[in-house]
Structures are given as C-alpha cells and as structure tokens.
Amino acid sequence: xxxxxxxxxxxxxxxxxxxxxxxxxxxxxxxxxxxxxxGAAASAAVAASSAVAASSAASASxxxxxxxxxxxxxxxxxxxxxxxxxxGSAASVPRLPGVRAAAFVIAxxxxxxxxxxxxxxxxxxxxxxxxxxxxxSLLPLLNPGGTTVATKLAAAQTPNVVGLLPGHAYRxxxxxxxxxxISANDAAVALAQATGTLTGGMAVINAEAHxxxxxxxxxxxxxxxxxxxxxxSAYDLALIARQALQxxxxxxxxxxxxxxxxxxxxxTVTLDNQNSLLTTYxxxxxxxxxxxxxxxxxxxxxxxxxxxxxxxxxxHCPALTEVDAAKSLxxxxxxxxxxxxxxxxxxxxxxxxxxxxxxxxAASASSAASASSAASAxxxxxxxxxxxxxxxxxxxxAAGAHxxxxxxxxxxxxxSCVSLALAGMGFAYSRRQRPAARYQRSRPNPRA
Length: 448
Hints:
alpha+beta, two-stranded antiparallel sheet
C-alpha cells in the first residue's frame, strides 16, 4: 500500500485510527446525551475524520446510483428482450443510433427505466440546461403573481438576453417565461435573488439537487454560465427532467412558444421559444437547450407518444446537432421501450425530512455545495457516487452528525483533535491524487 499511496495514506490511516481510539473512549451509555459546548469540538473532529474515512471506503466498494451498469463511460445498452415482449431475437431489436455526444441518457419517465446511456455519471458543464433545476427549485417558493426588483448584478449578466433594467420591478411569472423560453440569464439571477439573496437562492437550488439524488450536480450560478466547480451529468439531468414533468407550472412556461416581456413601460420584447423540438417533433413536451464554448451544446428533451413519456439528455455535443441527436434517441426509445432490458433506473427523490436534514434545506445545501465545489477541480472528471461516497454525502453527514458527550470528554476531545490534524494532513496530501484514486482513469475537460 505504501508503494502506491505513500505517506498520504499512512497519515490518513493514522488519523482514522486515532478517531477510532477517541470513539472507543466514549461509553455507549452516553449515546443518548445531548452535545454540550465542551464536546462540540470533539464532535466536529470526529465528523470530519469520518468524512475522510467514508470517502476512502467508497472508493474501495462503490455503489452506483441507478445501477452498476451505469458506472461505465462508454455506451451501455442491453438488446436482450424482456420477458413478456413479443417473440423475436435480440438481433431484431433496432440498434441504438450513433450520436455525437460525450454523454447521454434515454429513459422512460413513467417506469424510471434507463433504456441506454453513455457515460451517464460523467461530470460535464451544464450550460443552460441548469435552468431546469433553477426552475423546479424556485417555482414552489415564488408567487407567480408577485414582483421582484432587478438588481445591478442581474442586469449585468452577459449575455443578459431579456434586458432587465436595475431598479425595475418584474413579475415572477414573466421571469420564469423568459428563463425557459429564451434562456434569459438575467432572469435566472433575478429569480434566485427573489428568494431573499442570491446565496439563499443557490442554497435552495442545491438542496433540490440533493433531494432528487442528483449527486453529480453542483450549481454555482443559477443560469448555467461556466463557473469553476459547476457540473452535472446526463443521469442527473434525467432526474431533473422527470421532476419537471410532474410540475404543471413548469410545463406551462416551458411549452410557451411566444410571449411578450415588458422590459419597461416603454419597451416590450418578444420571447420566442428556442427549443425547436416543440414544433418539429410530434409528441414533444418541452425541455431545455444550452450552449457555451466550454460546455459545447447541451440538451434535455421530453416527449410522449401512446401513453409513453421519454426523457433524453445530452452533454457536450457539437453545435447545432443536439436537437437532431435527441430526435434520433427518442425515435429509438419509442420503438424499443418495453422490449429491451433496462440498463439502470432513475432513482426516486429522497423524503423531504431526509433531504433537508436537521438544519433545514438551505443549510444542508450550503454545506453540500461547499464540499462538492472543493472536490470538483475538474468538472469534466468522473465519480462513482454511492451512499457516503460523494463529497456532498460526506459533507451532509459531517454537518448533521452529533457525537454524544462522554464522562471523559477532555480525553475524547484530545484524541479527536489529534485525529483531525492527522486526517486533515492526509486529506490535503491525497487531494492531489484524488482524480487517479477515485476515477481510476483521467479525462481532460471537454473543450475547456
């Protein structure tokens, strides 16, 4: 082991060992006691060391959200027919079309079955597909008939798209329409700030990602413009789209083809929906288009035919190819849905109490975003999420963990402080090797 990991592992292991010694000094009878101020430092030390240990353990035995077949980076599809399907060999099942996307998922929104995927949990820049997460997070909180005053920050977004003016009041419903039709970056910031502060709005957005178990997703800004540490995955976008399909308010805004937006008393602009799937694909329900030079083209599409609703998500596509690629995957999906063995499942959201934690959704999201951002220096890298295996999960446990006070509180605190120092040193050293240790194979950021 020392040949492979060297001093980093030795130090981190010593920290974990010291943590175990500290925990052993706490009698089990004190487990029901509340944490006094004197024991808070020890509790935090144990929690931090446990987070490091959990991350290491997850690397050894990962569990992939949605199923083990979704751990791969290449195309995964199972042409074997499910039992009960019409007779025929696997060779008779239509082949998956080739699409020019670094990652994609095609899934049945009703059953949750993932029909095919490519690098479903790979981390990529979301571009404006992130606005779907912004919308489903803020729609339940903001009164559509209310107004919010645009700030200089909102108006300064580049490109701002709709042209908000600082100090002018805008209806929440108009801002959501601009957000989902023309992908207005300024509207996204205004909506996030309408929660009270931009920081609070981002906490809500990240809390919703956590609730959906979209653990590959970290939102740094509400509009998807490139930001350090911001990333998502094709799988996560499918989870977000599945939630959006259950929200009539979202679909109302997202399906709007044309609308008027009052920028000021003297100026009104026309909003024309950018998602051409709505007008060119029978059964289209909506979705979101995105683009930045670093992210490439990104896309989410949703369609329903004969009672079957499909979701397609694509990341890092060549410009102007994403909608046609989505159509190809949707056509294939409608032909094979119910006939092929799924390669994974879209997981259900966490219960609200579990997702929020004892400190509430905002606090949970804030700690999660901080930890995830620290662990995501390479947004296009790949992780294998699982229970306790992601930076977000470790942070949530660290934030919510409580260690009962012991009669030998000073002893436990001393051991814990030593363990924190040792584990911290090991963690600092090992972060430089994290991509190789966790992802096993390196991959450059897409067009970054």
